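Still learning folds. Look over my entry:

…
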Amino acid sequence: MRKTKQIQVIQESSEGMATTSNVENLSPQTIRQVARELAGLQTSPPEGIKVLFNEQDVTQVEALIDGPAGTPYAGGVFRVKLALSRDFPRSPPKGFFITRIFHPNVAVSGEICVNTLKKDWKADLGIKHLLLTIKCLLIVPNPESALNEEAGKMLLERYDDYCQRARMMTEIHAQVARGSKAAEEGEPTAKKHAAERPPATGDKRRLKDKTRRTLKRL
C-alpha cells in the first residue's frame, strides 16, 4: 500500500516532526567523516552537550543540551536534531528542537533559525560548531530573525513576561525525571544546574556581551 511505503520512507519523531534519511545520498567519505566526528563528540563532549550517536543513520544527529545557567532555560535538558541535507556538507543541515521550547528563533514546529544554518554556512563547519551555536542561542536570542513572533515581541517589549513564559515551558517540557532511563544513562540533568547559583547582574551582563561577540563570528 502507498501509505505503508510512505511510513517506511519518512521517520517521525516523538514530537511528530517528519524528516527523511539521506544516508543513500551521501558519499561514503562524507559518512565516515560525520561518523568520526560524532564518535569524537561522544568521547570528548562539549560542556553541557551530549550527542546521541545513531550508527544506522548518521544523517539524523540528535543531542541533549543543558539549558545555560542564568537563562530561563536553566535546569532544562533540550533534545535537538540536525538533519543533514542530501548534499551535505555543501548545504547546511536543518536544525530542530524536539523538546518544546518558547524561544524567538524556534518555530512552533521546532525549526531553528540561526545564520549558521542558513546564509553563513560553510562546508568546513562541523557538528560541534552547530551544537555550540544552538547552545549560544539559548543565552542570547535574536528577535530580529524570529520564527516565533510572539516570543520575539515579548522579548523586546516585556522581558520579564518572556522569561516567565520560557521558564514555565522549560519546567513543563524540558525536565528529566529523577530515576528515568535518561538519567541512568548519564544524560545531562537539571540537577546540575539547580545546584548552581545564578550569576550576579554584572556577571550576567558580561556573559551576554561576550556571547554576542561570539555569535557575530558564528
